[in-house]
Structures are given as structure tokens and as C-alpha cells.
Amino acid sequence: MSRLFETVSKASLERVLRDRRLGPAWRPPKIPAPRFTSADLEAAIEESEIVAYYQPKVDLANATLVGVEALARWKHSHGGVLPASQFMNAVEAHGHARLLDKSMLAQVLLQAKSWQDLDFDLPIALNVQMESLSTFGFLDDLEDAAAAGADISCLTIELTESQIMANPIVSLEVLARLKLMGVTLSIDDFGTGHSTLTKLRDIPFTELKLDRSFVRNAGHEGKAISQSIIEATVSLAHRLGLRIVAEGVEDQADWDYVGAIGCDVAQGYFVAKPMPAEQVQSWAELWSTKQHAHLRPDESGS
């Protein structure tokens, strides 16, 4: 079977962009009433209280650092550093997803340039809401950044499986534009929706992230169902030419298992927790010298 990103040619992507017969615009699902007010969130975003933390992604074959994912963290004046799980529902419910995505994109591109100036080239993944992409404003921001000299080739855009399938026609158009701009595309949280890879094969992804709910503790006994899902997904995804990221690797057993079945990249607390940008380079130096020695494959022959 041909590799997925070889079969999706530039010409076919351009044809998609010429075909303007789109379905209705994607709309986010209704979300329960949030604990934060709209004013709270808008101020937090505009005053840069919500910032990007970075979680490393490492190659399972040799344990080398291959990239990071940018994750939103709110430096709350009273609550400390809040993970996205505590405020993203409120962001979406109040209609601020577009504003947050715009802020996160600006932070990520600025950080990428800062690292590149230090000869520390590191791919950065960013999860984006389909609400942002469906308006094309996000793409315009990205094109403006590229025109101003930003290297957007270091960027991976992650979209959840459920968002893509909510309106695959709109998804294909905006993702075609991203692909033609040189951005890498990733299916995030795969396995939590109701689609299959065969339904997604015409969309120009090069990476698939297994949802942490399947990966966490998958290396332990009593996880036959999760293991069956993971192994079937990995097999088909590799046949389609996709790189597989195992998200939610929490311990040595998880690491050993996802490596043994052919996953390409690991991400999770066993590798590192999300950290501020200023800590990433020193973490990478420590990891490369001694921190991950016990994770390397046994080369002793015993």
C-alpha cells in the first residue's frame, strides 16, 4: 500500500481548495456552564497569563528528543499553575477558543525562533480547535507569520479525531491549506471518536497520536482490550505511512510495551511533565547525557 502522504499529491490538495462546495461551518459542541467568567478568560489570554508549557516527545527506538508539544497553562493569581483541563471547557463555552489559539500560535512561533537562534531546532506541536481553523483566520495568521520570516516548517498542528469527523469536508479544505504551507498534521486523541483510519485516509496527516486513555497502563496485565485496540491501530497506521505517537506513557511497563508493538514516539510523565520554555534546553541536555540511559534497548546480548 502506498504511503498516505505520497498518495495525497499537491495537485489533489489544490483541487480541494478550488472546490468551494462546502457543508455548513463546524460548530463546537455545547459545554456545561464554566466556573470562570468570560471576562476572567479574556483578560487571562490578553494579559499573557495563559502561557505555553512544553512536554517532550522522544523516539522509542533510541530515546532521543524529537520534539515537544505546547500545552496551555494558566498562571492564575490565586490557583497557581492550572492545567488546560481546568479551564478549556470554559474557554470553549465562552467562545474564546479562537483568541486562545491565536495567542498560543504567537507564543509557539516566537519560542521556535528563539530556540533556532540558539541552534536548538525543535519541532513543536500545537493542538488547535476546529473552530479556529474553520474561520480561516488562524491560517491567515500563520501565513502572515511566515511572510514576516517565521519558520513554520517546525510546526505540527494537532486536531482531535472527533473534531475532524464533525465536518470532514471543511476539515479537508483547511488541512489542505496547512499542508501546502509546509505544516505537519497530526490526528490527536485517536480512538476516542467513532471514525476509522479508512475514513481519514484522504486527509493529509503524517502522524497519529494514540489517546492516553488507551496507552496509560497498557503495559500491565489485565489490559487486553486496550492492547488489542492499540495493536490494530498501529498496524493499519503504519501501512498508511503514519508515524505513531503513544501519548500517556506513565511508567517503564508502558514504555516497553508501546516500543515493542512498533510505536515510534513516546510522550508522557515517564519521559517528562510539561515545563516552562526556559527549562526545555537544560532538560534536553540532561536527558541526552544520563537521564534516559536506562530506557535504551538492551545491547548486551543477554
Classify the beta-strand content into a percent band: 15-25%
Overall mean pLDDT stands at 82
CATH architecture: Alpha-Beta Barrel
Number of domains as seen in the coordinates: 1
Largest β-sheet summary: 8 strands, mixed, barrel
How many beta strands in the DSSP annotation?
10
Coarse structural class = alpha/beta
- What is the straight-line distance between the termini? 37 Å
Write down the CATH topology: TIM Barrel
Low-confidence stretches: 1-8, 16-28, 30-34, 297-302
Assigned CATH class:
Alpha Beta
Share of helical residues: 40-55%
Give the H and E element order: HHHEEEHHEHHEHHEHEHHEHEEH
How is this structure best described in words?
The protein is α/β, with parallel strands linked by helices and 302 residues long. The chain has one domain: EAL domain (TIM Barrel). The N terminus and C terminus are likely disordered. The protein has an 8-stranded mixed β-barrel, surrounded by 5 helices. Helices cover 44% and strands 19% of the residues. Pfam families: EAL (PF00563). One of its GO terms (molecular function) is cyclic-guanylate-specific phosphodiesterase activity. InterPro entries: Cyclic-di-GMP_PDE-like, EAL_dom, EAL_sf. This is EAL domain-containing protein.
